Amino acid sequence: MDTNAIYVLWLRDVKRFFRAKSRIIGTLLMPVFFLIGLGFGLGSIVNLSVLGISGNYLDFIVPGIIGMSLLFISIFTGSSVLWDRQFGFLKEIMVTPNSRVSIVIGRIFGGATSALLQSLVIIVIALLIGFSVHLSLMTPLFIVFALLIATTFISLGLIFGSIISDFQGFQLVTSFLTFPLFFLSNSIFPITTLPKYVQYVMYLNPLTYGVDGMRIALTGSGMFPVWIDLLALVVSTLIFGSIAVYAFKKVDVG
Amino acid sequence: MIIEVKKLEKEFGTLRAVNNISFNVKEGEIFGLLGPNGAGKTTTVKMLTTLVKPTKGTATVAGYDIIKDSNNVRKSIGIVFQDPSLDDELTGRENLEFHAILYNIGKKERKKRIQEAFKLVELEDKADVLVKNYSGGMKRRLEIGRGLLHEPKVLFLDEPTVGLDPQTRRHIWDYIQKLSKEKKVTLILTTHYIEEADYLCNRVAFIDHGKIVALDTPKVLKDKLGGDVVSLQINSGIERLKSEFRKKKYVKTISNRDGFLELTVDEGEKKIPEIMATAQKLGIEVSSVNLHKPSLEDVYIYYTGKTIRDEGGEGWKGMMRSRMRQR
Ligand SMILES: Nc1ncnc2c1ncn2[C@@H]1O[C@H](COP(=O)(O)OP(=O)(O)O)[C@@H](O)[C@H]1O
Ligand SMILES: [Mg+2]
Question: Could you say which DSSP state residue B293 is in?
Fold first, then answer.
């Protein structure tokens, strides 16, 4: 393992993250609109007990919106391979004597760090508009879940960024992918309210377990035991991570 | 031999971009690959730098096989790519810093070398500016500085001056010569500028349609064309002078047309005094002397039957590249 390469690629992402102020604000806008629109708007009309939620809809939805933001940012970050290839920086990394695995890990760490920072900002905004965190021993697990969600979907972004070589194609694939991943999860409504066949799809979606885990960490209740959520995400991270390494090894630098 | 290329070949689909080339590069020399756009120079460089897998054949760089031992090859080389390869969102210093860390250079050494590199490429005052605010020439110089940072045994320069203005080109030529002298690094340079190859390279390989059509020092290549032409302008006595020169061994061919006598000789500049003395002895007045040394361009035409610019010198791709670089 080339720790230097991991460190450099991590540092690069973090530096670029803090430098791109407008991008930070841009990526925060959508989650904030969702928070306000869904949390206040919908929350005041829907009958929560019909949805099987005990308590406040805002509390239910905040982990879901963090999940959404992690999903979008991660896929976007993962795809930076595509940008690097387009702007030529990828060649510079690939010609150095560092293993491809280290390069992938560095990119994932960097992306996950910035994704985590963004989700912490969303929590703060949510707290300001009335979200309440149920503090317990589980609360720190939030960070673990956020990082695992980020790792899974950065890997997915890396896979597509490595395989697809043009921006249009990439945009098409990601929008056909991210929205279903978001809606076919338990982010904005509980799974049990949906038809059985949709539920099966949701059970295959790593985001479902991630959001459930964050819900346990932040509000104290979820639909699965926490160890199932953890296991599911570790498995998805390993699967997508390995495919990402494989795809990145094959990437055409020329 | 620091590089040994053995029957290297690369196909893209049905296109044979590099066609069974073999050559050696000596340690410390500046070796040129000269050819028009699309000749296969970049593909060759990419294979030698392990970024592209050959279809057939192989090569060793610094003693390591490019296929079997690619990581050791990567440790021994540096490259300045034809297309931009900097991170625009980082400063010049950060770009160099990251490069140095990627090559495992310790913190103290790193600082020293980065300072040196900025000095060498004369960008000290721009070190902490974001690269997106650099000009094309500045980016190129930064890339050259970066390529040297880890002190590679072999440095590849793929069209180092394409798209740059003549002044910056001169500047970069000077760096390259300085490098070769001071750092003792072996340089492999590709170019489609004949004068660049002529000016910089110890040895040049002409590459055309993926094949090497000639390889030698610029001097030997030119000499193969039969030597220099000395033309003398003479008002009277041309026939007398002609028969006198026929007796001289160093004169290879003689011809005359409209008052000019043309002699083919080796090393014309050294023969001129002798030629003038001969004319003077016969009391023949020479009103002007002109020396034409065959250019590498003449050699290129001789081997490929066309000028290098016939092949579209700057094709569309080349123009796009230079435009990208200028941003
Ligand atoms: N990745 C690629 N896929 C398909 N064709 C390529 C690729 N790279 C280069 N070529 C083709 O191979 C030939 C040689 O290209 P290149 O090595 O870039 O030439 P040069 O550097 O001498 O201009 C060209 O015809 C080019 O279009
Ligand atoms: Mg080229």
Answer: P
